[in-house]
């Protein structure tokens, strides 16, 4: 049995009420939602650590010469913020695709 046939068989078993395309969209939406939670958790951790918003933290970092750890936290926090925006956009797009079906 080839990979495509296995995927279709699994999709039918796991999502009996959906076509293959709908099952894939559901799985992609689930992954995007998990990624959003991951990025939000990371961002929340930095917000709690520094007791400030990302915007305020960015201004502080950009107007100084921060220690290595603080600079690394800035890059990681920025990555999390970008990830949040990207995942929200992806979730909206996927939900739109699902609603069109």
Note the total helix count: 4
| Number of β-strand runs | 0
Compute the gyration radius: what is it? 19 Å
Structural class: mainly alpha
Q: Helices and strands, in N-to-C order?
A: HHHH
Helix content: over 70%
Q: Total domains, how many? A: 1
Spans with pLDDT under 50 lasting ≥5 residues?
A: none
Q: In one word, what is the shape?
A: elongated
What does the model show?
This protein has 101 residues and is mostly helical. It has one domain. Helices cover 84% and strands 0% of the residues. It has four helices and no strands. Helix 3 runs antiparallel to helix 4. The protein is elongated, with a radius of gyration of 19 Å. The chain starts with a helix and ends with a helix.
Compact description:
The chain has 101 residues and is mainly alpha-helical. 84% of the residues lie in helices and 0% in strands. It has 4 helices and no strands.
List the topology elements.
Elements: H1 3-14, H2 20-50, H3 54-62, H4 68-100
Helix pairs in contact: 2-4, 3-4
Descriptors:
mainly alpha
């Amino acid at each position: 049995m080839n990979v495509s046939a296995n995927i279709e068989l699994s999709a039918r078993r796991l999502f009996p009420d959906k076509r293959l395309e709908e099952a894939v969209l559901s799985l992609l939406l689930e992954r995007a939602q998990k990624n959003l939670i991951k990025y939000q958790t990371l961002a929340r951790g930095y917000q709690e650590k520094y007791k400030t918003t990302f915007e305020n933290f960015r201004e502080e970092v950009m107007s100084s010469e921060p220690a290595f750890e603080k600079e690394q936290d800035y890059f990681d926090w920025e990555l999390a913020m970008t990830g949040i925006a990207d995942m929200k956009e992806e979730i909206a797009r996927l939900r739109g695709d699902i609603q069109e079906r």
